[in-house]
Design a protein that fits this description.
mainly beta; seven-stranded mixed β-sheet; five-stranded antiparallel β-sheet; 1 helix; 12 strands; 49% strand
């Protein structure tokens, strides 16, 4: 399955139920958060509590793993295949806004370090927020996602 980056965010929002409803008056302007694009740096990952993995359809071979370390605000992404794609974690952060949630940040952590390598993107999230993310592979020349996983969510 191939999706454009924006479509992937919409899919994540729908899957997590993190919908951007606001209690602001109709005259107030709603700003869309800037899409944060981060390139992972090589590292040795710690023990994880929340991970998701992307697999090839049909074979079940894992090709990307995305993990979040609660309390450290670090995303770890592993590219498990030498296939020309980068492994990535696409994420959104929503915070309470009255009786609903408002998406305040969104972004991606791309691991272009090569097959078999872990990379980390260090973030600083609002602890009152709820974080949702999924793993997938990203093809930069065509700006497309491949083999997107089901999402994972947790408190930031």
């Amino acid at each position: 399955m191939v999706r454009k980056g924006l479509s992937a965010i919409v899919a994540l929002v729908m899957a997590t139920g993190l919908v951007a409803f606001t209690a602001a008056p109709a005259s107030a302007s709603v700003t869309t958060p800037v899409y944060e694009w981060n390139t992972a740096v090589a590292g040795t990952p710690p023990s994880f509590t929340k991970c998701t993995s992307s697999t090839y359809i049909g074979s079940g071979d894992v090709q990307a793993i995305a993990c979040y370390v609660e309390g450290s605000d670090d995303f770890w992404v592993k590219d498990t295949k030498v296939d020309g794609y980068s492994a990535a974690a696409d994420w959104i952060l929503a915070v309470p806004n009255g009786i609903s949630m408002e998406i305040v940040r969104r972004g991606i952590c791309i691991n272009s370090l090569g097959g078999g390598k872990w990379g980390v993107c260090k973030k600083n999230f609002d602890e009152a927020g709820t974080l949702g993310w999924f793993a997938g592979t990203y093809d930069k020349p065509t700006d497309t996602w491949h083999h997107i996983t089901s999402n994972v969510s947790t408190r930031a």
